Design the sequence.
């Protein structure tokens, strides 16, 4: 059997670093938008802004987690 190009342990380490970087830069970007003139001004619009931006990060995070958790090719039988 051949060894996988990226074993699951390496993928988990890379995924951890990617998740931390994603959350850091995403939060930094959203905070920058929230205090700038680009942010919505009404309370209802601001509420939906924070709801949507609070959930959007889960899409790339889910993709990273899916990639991290894939079994190695040799484990699929």
Sequence:
């Amino acid at each position: 059997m051949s060894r996988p190009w990226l074993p699951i342990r390496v993928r988990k380490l890379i995924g951890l670093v990617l998740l931390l970087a994603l959350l850091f830069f995403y939060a930094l970007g959203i905070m920058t938008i929230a205090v700038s003139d680009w942010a919505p001004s009404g309370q209802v619009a601001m509420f939906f802004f924070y709801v949507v931006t609070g959930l959007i990060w889960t899409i790339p995070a889910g993709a990273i987690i899916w990639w991290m958790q894939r079994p190695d090719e040799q484990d699929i039988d």
Notes: Residues 34 and 41 are 10 Å apart (CA to CA). The chain has a mean pLDDT of 90. The chain is about 70% helix and 0% strand.
